[in-house]
Design brief:
By secondary structure, the protein is an all-beta fold. Helices cover 0% and strands 69% of the residues.
Length: 124
Amino acid sequence: MGSGLSVAAGLKNGKYYHNQYRYVVIPHYRYYFGSKYASGFFLEAHASVISAKKDLKTEFEAEEEFEQYYGLGAAMGIKLFNKKGFSAEVYAGLGQQLNVDKEKLQDKSLQLYPRIGISIGKRF
């Protein structure tokens, strides 16, 4: 078994590009099916907290406001180690936001979100 935390932050790049995300936090729990400690094929359950831009437009001005969305999801993947302690991990999954108001949300893709990753690391 294992648990972890994924964190991301949205960036704002001048007047030409404004990211719709302020932050994303995804705690996860994994159950490994391999014969070695915390390696092999795994299934993952995760929750999500996403702060995203809410689109509020009036006749006279456009106002930016952020709202928090919560979700649940699952993923599967594989984690492998070599004898020197280096690891490689690949996983993919899908999550569903639970409190999305479809009329107020600027980006409709937040209803479902992908959970995809590749990582390389070292065990100490």
